[in-house]
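Progress report, Aim 2. The chain analyzed during this reporting quarter is listed below.
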Amino acid sequence: ARNKGADTAVKSNLANARAEAEIFYDSNSNSYAPTGVTNGVCSESAANGIGDNVRAAMTATGIATTVAVNGIYCGAAADAWAAWAPLKTTATNAYCVDSKGSAKTLTTLPTAAITACP
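Predicted structure tokens for the chain:
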């Protein structure tokens, strides 16, 4: 039951990231990776950055807080972004959301930052 609760937390945090990312995009000249914003929409400190949502999803599955959000769990380009976190019930699966509207379970964990859920 706890693992299912953790999976729900992953999905909820990443779902919330989608709306926040759109506010970020609108506030940054229609870009998910504007000049001058380190890590773009994946930032944990920028206004409306989604890094804090991704961090919360990672924490729900037990990933150490020292692991970087940007670079593998969240990726951003000017016109696209994606974020994912592994699921607790099946460690080889992950939940992924992106700027194209995807929100789905992956059966293979990404090995690098992605800007669209595969």
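The chain is about 30% helix and 15% strand. The longest strand covers residues 80-86. These observations will guide the mutagenesis work planned for the next reporting period.
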